[in-house]
Write a structure and sequence with these properties.
7-stranded parallel sheet, Rossmann fold, binds nicotinamide-adenine-dinucleotide, alpha/beta
Length: about 250
């Protein structure tokens, strides 16, 4: 088991890549705090894990709330006694019809960028005390390049995650804390995707991918698994695109 006895918090774990990550982590021996704002769906993920003899609990966590972060870290420590891994996965899509909307910019910065910072801020002191840990921040190919149908706030927020990851990696290597970012490409649409959920537009987007298909949620979850595990013990501050070759073109 690649995460035997590790304790992990996964945000946005009620859906998509977060749910897949939580299930694969539990399957590999981790005790997982499944967090999200969607309580029923989150409880469903926990039920699936438990049914498969894994260990998980649900905790409601809005990543923009400092108080929720404090409660989530306290819940992980109360239930499992330590904290080894954080996957900062929660996010909202920037694929919206009004690409100049100011509220979207603010929402992107608040959830997709600040939410990731608040997560690192909440877990780093605990990981320092515990002798180390691994943080995996989910960015996007939009953190590298602009895209026609994605609000610039999404790219800016995902770019912020990419660079905040490197800063945290440099600042906390001495604490034994590794921090890396994962950059999914064209994946199944997010719950909040609008333009890019359209099948016609998706066909065009997929035509730009060397592998000529969208990614599966597990393909990102397995990258998260590697980075979270001790197999990646000398890897910090790097960007891992999981994009079928999109950025290689
Ligand atoms: P998804 O919509 O299926 O899942 C996102 C989850 O985040 C949802 O369960 C949602 O409830 C949760 N969430 C949203 N706001 C939150 C908040 N404030 N606090 C806590 N939870 C919140 O989407 P997904 O495709 O699984 O996306 C996961 C991550 O991957 C996101 O960070 C997203 O930006 C990134 N990403 C997605 C794609 C894609 O095409 N789907 C591509 C690249 C990157």
């Amino acid at each position: 088991m690649r995460l035997k006895d590790k304790v992990a918090i996964v945000t946005g774990a009620a859906s998509g890549m977060g749910a897949s990550t939580a299930k694969i982590f539990a399957n590999q021996g981790a005790k997982v705090l499944v967090t999200d704002m969607l309580e029923d769906e989150g409880a469903g993920v926990v039920a699936e894990i438990t049914k498969a003899d894994g260990e998980a609990r649900f905790q409601r966590l809005d990543v923009t709330s400092e108080a929720d972060w404090d409660s989530a870290v306290a819940a992980a420590l109360a239930a499992y006694g330590k904290l080894d891994i954080l996957v900062n996965n929660a996010g909202v899509s920037g694929s919206t019809p009004d690409l100049l909307n100011l509220d979207t910019w603010d929402q992107q910065m608040n959830i997709n960028a600040k939410g990731v910072f608040l997560g690192m801020r909440a877990v780093i002191p605990v990981m320092q005390k515990g002798g180390g840990g691994s943080i995996v921040n989910i960015s996007s190919i939009s953190g590298f390049v602009g895209q026609e149908y994605v609000h610039m706030g999404y790219s800016a927020a995902k770019g912020a995650v990419r660079l905040a990851t490197k800063a945290a990696a440099v600042q906390h290597a001495k604490d034994g804390i590794r921090v890396n970012s994962v950059h999914p490409g064209i994946m199944p649409p997010m719950r909040t995707s609008k333009l890019t959920a359209d099948p016609e537009l998706r066909a065009k987007m997929i035509a730009a991918i060397p592998m000529a298909r969208e990614g599966g949620v597990e393909e990102v979850a397995y990258a998260n698994l590697f980075l979270a595990s001790d197999e990646a013990s000398y890897i910090t501050g790097i960007e891992v695109p999981v994009d079928g070759g999109y950025l290689a073109v």
